[in-house]
Each structure stands twice: as C-alpha cells, then as structure tokens.
Inverse folding.
C-alpha cells in the first residue's frame, strides 16, 4: 500500500511538473475583441527574474498579420503584486535602454503611462492593444484604463517585449511563436 502511494505521488508530481506553466487566458476579454476585432494567439511564455516568476504573457495578432504592422494585443497576468509607480518607471527605464533619449518626451509619456498602468495584484491581467501608426489602448481586469493616441509611445512600449534588443529574447521568441512555450 505504501509503495502504491509513493508511486502515485511520483506520477502526480511528474504530471504537475509537466503541466504548462503559462496561465494567461485563452480568450481575450470581450471589450478588447470589440476594440480590435478577432485576434489569434501568436505565442505565450513566462517572465522570471532571479528565479521568481513575475508574470505570464501572451501575444495576440490579427489573423494573417505580421506583428510589426498589424494590430496586436499583449496580455500579462501577474504572479505578484506590483505598484503602478514601479510598472511605469520600469517601462520608462526599458524605453531608455532601447534608445529613447528625449527626456521631455519621456516625461510626457510618464503621464500617459500613469493613466494606463494601475497597480496590479497577484492574478491581475493587464492588456495592451497596439495599433501601429495610431497608438494603443490598455485594459486592467477587462476594464479600459486608457487610450493613448501617440504612435511613438505605443511603439516604444511594445518594443520592451517585441524588439530584437529586448532584455528577454527567449520570451520574445515564444511570444512571436518562434519557440516552443515553456
């Protein structure tokens, strides 16, 4: 009997470890789909920092579209609480790292990002919809937080994940469907 329990526990543990770790919803909220139209899942992955899981991410793209020119939505489901100020500051720091040097522009962008990015709790989902050449819209838990009519800000924000110089190239590859999910 004890041997069976140990074997069963081993099988359950192996199954749990093999279970996909990405837990972003398989469907976008109705409000996002209404704004964007139908989008298809391109890829998904998770972000870890120093071994700690920060979030799961999924990228949705117009059917037949290419991320560089087609509307696309990035959904991020957080694994831990993060203050709005931290989300905004980290976003701006990454934009600087990717080459944005105009501090006046960054200060203007800070205000827009403060409206778009609220504090998140564990399990919360933020979704950004990028409309190349037009701007972006953001939702927190399915509720619209902001429309940003600044194509340069939208491009810089989504580049954090999708630019070839991203800090997380493995996550980028998974989001773009160039690598297997974790």
């Amino acid at each position: 009997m004890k041997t069976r329990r140990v074997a069963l526990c081993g099988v359950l543990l192996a199954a749990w470890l093999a279970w996909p770790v990405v837990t972003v919803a398989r469907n976008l909220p109705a409000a996002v789909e209404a704004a964007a139209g139908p989008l298809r899942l391109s890829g998904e992955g998770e972000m870890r920092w120093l071994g700690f899981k920060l979030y799961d991410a999924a990228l949705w793209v117009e059917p037949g579209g290419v991320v560089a020119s087609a509307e696309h939505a990035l959904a991020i489901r957080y694994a831990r609480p993060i203050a709005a100020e931290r989300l905004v500051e980290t976003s701006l720091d990454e934009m600087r790292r990717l080459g944005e040097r105009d501090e006046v522009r960054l200060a203007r962008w800070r205000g827009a990002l403060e409206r778009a990015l609220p504090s998140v709790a564990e399990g919360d989902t933020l979704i950004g919809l990028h409309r190349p050449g037009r701007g972006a819209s953001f939702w927190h838990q399915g509720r619209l937080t902001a429309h940003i009519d600044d194509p340069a800000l939208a491009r810089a924000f989504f580049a954090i994940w999708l630019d070839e110089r991203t800090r997380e190239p493995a996550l980028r590859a998974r989001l773009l469907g160039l690598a297997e999910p974790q």
